[in-house]
């Protein structure tokens, strides 16, 4: 008798075939399960009408159907929804649903906390607790689909919530495979974006994997002196090495890597910074997303004025670069970029509002940045 317990949403179709095979079930059962779970949003085996009662009982004993649950869903003035999810061990992560018709984009987390230590980011203040499993990443999407259903579904996923996806690469890739399954949610590479602070060692190994997702790189500065201060990872992998790694990634025709640039007042928003950015990408076609800093309590940076933001953008546009200003969504409920931080990831806060950061059992691979 098989007594192992499996996470229902943490397995690719092929893995599920294997698991079911060991349970004496036929191959096509995996396809049936995928369709029920991901296409119909049903995880209660007793409702799976094309599966025998005997198999239903076996599955009840063998699978844990949900690995995350929504604790709160807070809607902001602009329609953005911030979710607080509880994980099986009581830890918590956040996510953000951004309506941008016809798209409905979900920002998912890949880790509880983060150990990259970026100076401007709220999640970094929490420290790092643990990686999310593939099932926990996938289930964030499933739970939101159930929450907003049955007529609406998440159309796009960005791995820009809490954590650094490439610091949890294996589980992130597995989650992407599950989300992309033809028998499941069918997310194509065009609708999945992985954002990284620039873990060069992981980037260089990606190669053709961009066929399965789009890549965004958080650059945030055009010279190493500034980037060293903002992002400790830069001291290990400076800009030249980061861009070299980006060049090794094979892209499809007309596809571009997106570079994100958080605009911080008097730090990286000056005209000379924009010119340095132009020079850095001279002759290379890239897309730049300018993200005006979302001000967050306890983080010592400010948002530049609108005039400064527009002037910065104009310098890039004049140099024929693609530069888009990303307006901040959901900032009235602290759901905007860099504002995600659960108060204490070991026990859930009573409300979904981030409380003043507790560092908990902070683990950092890098020194805190000098300010
Ligand atoms: N670790 C990944 C994904 C999470 S951060 C990464 O670094 O890319 C997602 C984006 O939000 C990054 O581009 C980051 O630079 C940006 N960001 C972080 N804090 C921010 C803030 N307070 N205001 C605006 N953007 C922020």
Task: Please give a handful of descriptors for the protein shown.
371 residues; alpha/beta; TIM Barrel; ten-stranded mixed β-sheet; elongated; disordered C terminus; binds S-adenosyl-L-homocysteine
Structure report:
This protein has 371 residues and is of the alpha/beta class. The protein has 2 domains: 6-64, DNA polymerase, domain 1 (Orthogonal Bundle), CATH 1.10.150.530; 68-333, Alpha-Beta Barrel (TIM Barrel), CATH 3.20.20. Helix content is 30%, strand content 19%. It has 12 helices and 14 strands. It has helices at residues 13-22, 28-39, 53-62, 122-126, 134-148, 169-180, 200-203, 224-230, 233-236, 239-247, 271-280, 306-318, and strands spanning 6-7, 63-64, 68-75, 81-87, 92-100, 103-107, 111-113, 128-131, 156-159, 192-196, 214-218, 258-263, 287-292, 322-325. The strands form 3 sheets. Strands 3-4-5-6-9-10-11-12-13-14 form a 10-stranded mixed beta sheet, with helices on one face. Helix 7 links the parallel strand 10 (192-196) and strand 11. Helix 1 packs across helix 2 and helix 11 runs parallel beside helix 12 (306-318). The radius of gyration is 21 Å and the shape is elongated.
Task: Give a short overview.
With 371 residues, this protein is of the alpha/beta class. The chain is built from twelve helices and 14 strands. Strands 3-4-5-6-9-10-11-12-13-14 form a ten-stranded mixed beta sheet, with helices on one face.
Q: Segments where pLDDT lies below 50 for 5+ residues?
A: 349-371
Unique bound compounds: S-adenosyl-L-homocysteine
Please give the order of strands in the largest beta sheet. Answer: 3-4-5-6-9-10-11-12-13-14
CATH fold topology of the largest domain: TIM Barrel
**End-to-end distance, in Å?**
59 Å
The fraction of residues in strands falls at 15-25%
Total number of beta strands: 14
Main beta sheet = 10 strands, mixed
Basic shape: elongated
What class do helices, strands and sheet pairing give? alpha/beta
At CATH's second level, what is the architecture of the largest domain?
A: Alpha-Beta Barrel
CATH superfamily of the largest domain: Aldolase class I
Rounded Rg: 21 Å
Helix content: 25-40%
Total domain modules: 2
